[in-house]
């Protein structure tokens, strides 16, 4: 059993190592990892400006499924699996989530060491710390086979940072 688990972990590591395009959000698998991607970057706990709680439920829902942040904000997302099934939360573009969901169908026990992913057994809690550096929408989903198709998805709306107006201070 121990050997089987070791082999499975090794196979997962090799699979993840061969797909840097997913980790960086890039369509070109031969590019080197970028410090930021279209969905942001791993955040530092000490720089989190607020914490939100998200539940993963066996009704194939994230509660809440919609979050709002400001561009540049670092958010601590505390996630609890309140169900009896294994669930995960993966932040990504719609394209990246679809590609990763296909990989999960082939290897549903895949482990996720990336900072934008968290897999939790029933009753477990964990957290993601993410800096949302790009304005727009960041999607998230549970990519366990069948879960996102059943509606276990959500979105983070990232509001554009207000540009500084250097001339406004002199208008008074």
Spatial strand sequence of the major β-sheet: 1-8-5-2-3
Q: CATH superfamily, called what?
A: Cupredoxins -  blue copper proteins
CATH architecture: Sandwich
CATH overall fold name: Immunoglobulin-like
Total E-strand runs: 10
Poorly predicted residue ranges: 1-36, 168-172
The first-level CATH class is given as Mainly Beta
Largest sheet: 5 strands, mixed
Radius of gyration: 18 Å
- Number of separate domains: 1
SS-derived structural category: alpha+beta
Order of helices and strands: HHEEEEEEHEEEE
Spatial separation of the terminal alpha carbons = 74 Å
Can you tell me about this structure?
The model is unreliable at 1-36 and 168-172 (pLDDT under 50). It contains three helices and ten strands, in the order H-H-E-E-E-E-E-E-H-E-E-E-E. The protein has one domain (39-161): Immunoglobulin-like, CATH 2.60.40.420. The strands form two sheets. Strands 1-8-5-2-3 form a five-stranded mixed β-sheet, with no helix packed on it. A five-stranded mixed β-sheet has the order 4-10-9-6-7, with helices on one face. Helices cover 20% and strands 34% of the residues. By secondary structure, the protein is an alpha+beta fold.
């Amino acid at each position: 059993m121990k050997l089987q688990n070791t082999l499975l972990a090794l196979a997962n590591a090799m699979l993840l190592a061969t797909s840097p395009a997913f980790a960086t959000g890039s369509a070109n698998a031969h590019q080197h990892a970028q410090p930021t991607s279209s969905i942001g970057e791993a955040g530092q706990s000490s720089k989190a400006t607020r914490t939100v709680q998200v539940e993963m439920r066996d009704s194939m829902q994230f509660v809440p499924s919609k979050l709002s942040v400001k561009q540049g904000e670092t958010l601590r997302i505390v996630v609890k699996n309140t169900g009896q099934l294994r669930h995960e939360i993966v932040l990504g573009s719609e394209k990246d989530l679809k590609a990763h969901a296909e990989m999960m169908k082939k290897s549903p026990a895949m482990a996720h060491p990336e900072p934008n992913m968290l897999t939790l057994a029933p009753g477990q809690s964990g957290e993601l710390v993410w800096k949302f550096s790009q304005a727009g929408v960041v999607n998230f989903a549970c990519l366990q086979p069948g879960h996102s198709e059943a509606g276990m998805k959500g979105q983070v709306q990232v509001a554009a940072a207000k540009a500084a107006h250097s001339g406004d201070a002199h208008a008074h």
